[in-house]
Amino acid sequence: MPADSDKRNFALRADDGEEESVFSGSTPRQAALKAARRIDPAASENEADRKPIRLREKGTHKIHIYEGWSWKESPPEVDMDEWDAEDPEDVWMNQVDEITKANVSKQGVEHLDDL
């Protein structure tokens, strides 16, 4: 069985019902976090504006509703004693000044039949 067999697809819905993008994840929250990283990031988590994120699970009538926000942050310090120049995770962390982080809060679930 392939490793991605538990992935589900979630379409990001605009206010007018148009589905703009598709995010995948094993849970709706995973997909919502990916969508939240596309929100214009604030300087810190405390200053971040919260935006609604509506994701329809493909193949269903369920719409997962989240509140999402993103912010810029310094990357974690890499311990130079344990640093491995061949490890891709260590390499990119030393080449950027900031990373975008995101968080989401579940607001509920709607069904298209109920709208």
Overall geometric form: elongated
Order of helices and strands: EEHEEHE
**What is the average of the pLDDT values?**
88
C-alpha-based Rg, rounded: 17 Å
> How far is it from the N-terminal to the C-terminal residue, by CA?
37 Å
Short description:
With 115 residues, the protein is mainly beta. The protein has helices at residues 28-36, 88-93; strands at 8-13, 19-25, 51-57, 62-73, 99-111.
Write up what this structure looks like.
- The chain is mainly beta.
- The protein has one domain (3-71, 102-114).
- 13% of the residues lie in helices and 39% in strands.
- The chain has a five-stranded antiparallel beta sheet, covered by helices on one side.
- The longest helix has 9 residues, at 28-36.
- The radius of gyration is 17 Å and the shape is elongated.
- The termini are far apart.
Key phrases:
single chain; 115 residues; mainly beta; five-stranded antiparallel sheet; 2 helices; 5 strands; elongated
What order do the helices and strands come in, and which of them pair?
Blueprint: E1 8-13, E2 19-25, H1 28-36, E3 51-57, E4 62-73, H2 88-93, E5 99-111
Antiparallel strand pairs: 1-2, 1-3, 3-4, 4-5
